[in-house]
Design brief:
The chain is mainly beta. The chain has a single domain, classed as Maltoporin, Chain A. The chain has seven helices and 37 strands. It has a 22-stranded antiparallel barrel. A five-stranded mixed β-sheet has the order 3-8-9-6-7. It is globular.
């Protein structure tokens, strides 16, 4: 292990910057920032008004008592990131499931625990999928992202909804919901690219620079792609050139945000979101079978309201109400089905309420109590549908104390899940108390060096698919339980020839009990059961630095590296014992080098990983080769009259046309290009 880590650290290059290098990065504190978890607790009483906090993002990442990795919109532009899946591949400890092509399903697993253990929080409110437990990140536009923040373990902010603390890791997506500029704002953009790709996008809004009043923003996006990219199929000495079939995608996305301020410390924020994706499913490439007649249509609507306000000098309140509706319709035309077609239709509904009360009796000490309630149900057109539903009640009590150069935080989460079914037997009810504790120490006052350690115990209940899916689910499943231990150090300095350098390094151990896995029930039926134990130990390291060449030129070098040793430890006599868990690479990383200047900005970047296996037994036939994907990006911004802007960007992806797979038998696109033109006023 030591050899793997040292070798990879020497060549470490990649990205996880948490600040806008070369610019004055700022956070504009808004209503959604209170549950968003990116402010230090000791500033809550003073920064509730709408103010600008200079260079807070990088300081927060370095001083955080838990691993935190951020990408803001400026860094996304500077480093050649073209979509959210690419952004996720730049973060350490992340394993992305990507089935290839624009609009393909993209889910995230952090530190080898599985995507069901990763919560996604969109503008301060958790997203949910009670059917699969996985959030598809392709539903959210990178052009509307203000920042992405990934937390491994607990969040070191205590003023959070209880649901935000109920997962092993969390991804916060903050969108452009409002602006402090009272002028009307408009951004229009058009992207075109290889394989029939085009993507128009528009965002408009009007801010409010007064203590009282209304501000709003709205955005819409359409994506079309044929996704008919070529790939090479090899079978021994026989090589054929194929093209991806049945892979067309049409996606619509619309969103409206409104905010009303009652004064300098109280406001209400509302959001309405709609998504509609109609896509063909290409299927696996197996023995020259490339055709498919599968189709999937996903729709999602939600509306939410958030209130945030200061009740007094010592108390603050945040509350949220949300309704979510989503549907999924899967069809497959094949003679093996009665009538020649399979048509499955699923509908999910969620009602969600949360409230959080923050108490700050004196400077440096804060306490929070949060209470969440949600109701989820799933229905379908299947004859075996039993219409399950679940009531979830989550409560957290948290405290944070900062004294001298030491910060200590503790949280207790009490979870109660009540499962019912209208037309059949329901799964087990579950309740549990889950503690977490974190500590951060700055040993030397004048040196930006921090030591941090944390522990979190958490569990996840079975998804509705795992509990109720016909001939597959089991209502007798117990929750998966995880214990997460982390120890790390961070360092930041601008006392070198570099204008800024930031380093982070974290080692961790994760233990999973009652791992939910599929096992053969008989020759034809597989069933879900609690069979597995998994141990994961690894290391995440990041670097970001800037070198100012002249007053008009600078170089930004950023990097990350991850080592993950994820081992099944269920049965010492099995073929899986101490092997590598499927789809988790031993080594992974990414890199970005940006040249910023007054002419044309240029970026070279790459992401890559070592070989993986599709099964836990790690037999040679299930091996997936590693890959290294390089890309280039150039851009130029033209300043027009009245502060208007015109920007053009060109991207060349997978420059060396390397064919690789992230998911077995789903080849990723080869060399491709994108051109983006945007106007902003």
């Amino acid at each position: 292990m030591r050899k793997h880590i040292l070798t990879s650290l020497i060549s470490m290059l990649s990205i996880v910057p948490a600040h806008s290098v070369g610019t004055n990065a700022y956070i504009s504190v808004s209503a959604s920032d209170i549950p968003d978890g990116r402010k230090s607790v000791d500033t809550v009483s003073s920064d509730l008004p709408n103010i600008e906090v200079k260079s807070l993002k990088n300081k927060k990442r370095v001083s955080s008592s838990t691993p935190q990795y951020n990408l803001d919109s400026e860094i996304i532009r500077q480093t050649g990131i073209t979509d959210i899946s690419e952004a996720m591949r730049r973060l350490p400890g992340v394993n992305l499931r990507d089935y290839g092509g624009a609009g393909g399903l993209k889910t995230v697993s952090v530190r080898g625990l599985g995507s069901e253990h990763t919560a996604v929080i969109y503008d301060g409110v958790s997203l949910s999928d009670c059917q699969s437990g996985q959030i598809d990140l392709s539903r959210y536009s990178i052009d509307n992202v203000r920042s992405l923040s990934l937390y491994s373990g607990d969040n070191d902010d205590i003023f959070l909804p209880a649901k935000a603390a109920a997962s092993a890791s969390s991804l916060y997506i903050s969108s452009f919901t409002s602006t402090d500029d009272a002028d009307f704002h408009l951004k229009s953009q058009m992207k075109i690219g290889s394989f029939g790709y085009y993507n128009p996008y528009i965002r408009l809004g009007k801010g409010n620079d007064n203590d009282r009043g209304f501000s709003y923003s709205a955005n819409a996006e359409y994506i079309h792609s044929e996704n008919d990219y070529p790939f090479i199929l090899t079978n021994g000495d026989l090589i054929t050139h194929e093209k991806r079939e049945n892979s067309r995608m049409n996606s619509w996305l619309g969103e409206f945000n409104g905010m009303y301020r009652f004064g300098d410390s109280s406001r209400i924020v509302g959001k309405v979101y709609y998504y509609d994706n109609s896509r063909d499913l290409p299927g696996q490439v197996i023995y020259y079978v490339n055709g498919s007649n599968e189709h999937l249509r996903d729709r999602n609507f939600f509306g939410q309201f958030q209130y945030k306000g200061r009740l007094s000098s010592k108390f603050s309140l945040a509350s949220t109400a949300k309704f979510n509706w989503s549907s999924s319709r899967y069809t497959d035309i094949d003679g093996k089905y009665p009538g020649g077609i399979l048509d499955n239709y699923y509908i999910q509904r969620e009602t969600y309420f949360t409230g959080a009360l923050l108490f700050t009796p004196f400077s440096g000490f804060s306490m929070d109590y949060s209470l969440d309630w949600s109701w989820n149900n799933l229905s379908s057109n299947l004859k075996t549908d039993i219409r399950p539903y679940r009531n979830s009640i989550l409560q957290t009590l948290a405290a944070k104390y900062k004294v001298w150069r030491l910060t200590v935080m503790a949280r207790a989460l009490y979870s109660l899940y009540i499962n019912k079914a209208k037309d059949g037997d329901a799964g087990k009810d579950n309740r549990r108390l889950s503690p977490s504790v974190m500590l951060s120490l700055k040993p030397i006052a004048d040196v930006g060096w921090y030591i941090r350690t944390s522990y979190k115990n958490i569990f996840r209940v079975p998804t509705f698919n795992e509990a109720y899916f016909d001939h597959y689910g089991s209502i007798n499943l117990d929750p998966e339980i995880t214990d997460q231990f982390n120890f790390g150090m961070t360092f930041e300095s601008n006392a070198t020839f570099l204008s800024n350098i930031t380093l982070t390094c974290d080692g961790y151990i994760n233990h999973v009990k009652n791992k939910i896995v599929a096992v053969p029930y008989n020759m034809f039926v597989w069933r879900m059961t609690n069979l597995g134990k998994v141990r994961v130990f690894g290391l995440d390291a990041t670097i970001s630095s800037e070198y100012v060449v002249t007053d008009k030129q600078s170089l930004i070098l950023t990097g990350s590296y991850s080592y993950q040793r994820a081992q099944p430890r269920t049965n010492p006599g099995s073929s899986e014992w101490m092997k590598q868990v499927a789809y988790i690479p031993l080594n992974s990383g990414s890199a970005s080098l940006s040249w910023l200047n007054s002419w044309v900005n240029g970026v070279i970047h790459f992401t890559g990983c070592s070989p993986r296996y599709t099964t836990n037994s790690n037999i040679p036939e299930t091996k997936i080769d590693g890959y290294c994907d390089f890309g280039f990006s150039v851009s130029r911004t033209f300043m027009l009259k009245n502060k208007n802007k015109f920007r053009i960007q060109g991207d060349l992806l997978n420059v060396f046309n390397r064919q690789y797979e992230i998911v077995a038998r789903y080849p990723m696109p080869g060399r491709s290009w994108k051109i983006s033109v945007e106007f902003e006023m």
